[in-house]
């Protein structure tokens, strides 16, 4: 192990950042080709698998640096947590841009949509039906993942695994109910600006739920492999932060998209 005269971790040369970036580019290009030219779906699937393969190898090397090489000191952990905070802030401003559009049209609806918000012939969902159930599900998932984290801090691994498993179940059930809600919708994404904003906001939130489930599944796998301790579980803690962020965004979506205009 090389000794440095500073407390920082200098990452060794790795091919995975470049290969992962190229695989993401290929995946997005094949997605556009699939959308607009109706070409073979298997090319899209192949690029997705290549992206996941490269990402998995990159994460494998990071875990090796953390667990076996001892590179992730307390100072490095502090910087990694700060990086996650910046990432969550960037995601927050991503949703703020949608809320900005929504409130702009809510406060001053354009004459092209009849100066009504929501526009006429938009039959909105009842906030006390599926949206309310989804709110309960996400709040419950926030409770279970906090329970899991607290159990891990107290070296109660069995309870941590069970409560984390329930959090994943809640997330999957949320996505299923959102799929049912979309199927029962009386409007679509091209029904005026309201339909566009509604499906963009709820759709991207659903995508964030999907990413959060993937993070929790990876944390669950590592917890089963006994790769977490009560003082070193950065992967799980960052997944927890992200999940709480997604929960918070949904409460604002429910309040302004469903309850306020009903």
TrEMBL record:
Gene3D superfamilies: 1.10.287.70, Cytochrome c oxidase, subunit III, four-helix bundle. It holds the Pfam family COX3. It is found in: Membrane. GO terms for molecular function: cytochrome-c oxidase activity. Keywords: Membrane, Mitochondrion, Translocase, Transmembrane, Transmembrane helix. GO terms for cellular component: membrane; mitochondrion. One of its GO terms (biological process) is mitochondrial electron transport, cytochrome c to oxygen. Component of the cytochrome c oxidase, the last enzyme in the mitochondrial electron transport chain which drives oxidative phosphorylation. The respiratory chain contains 3 multisubunit complexes succinate dehydrogenase (complex II, CII), ubiquinol-cytochrome c oxidoreductase (cytochrome b-c1 complex, complex III, CIII) and cytochrome c oxidase (complex IV, CIV), that cooperate to transfer electrons derived from NADH and succinate to molecular oxygen, creating an electrochemical gradient over the inner membrane that drives transmembrane transport and the ATP synthase. This is Cytochrome c oxidase subunit 3. The gene is cox3.
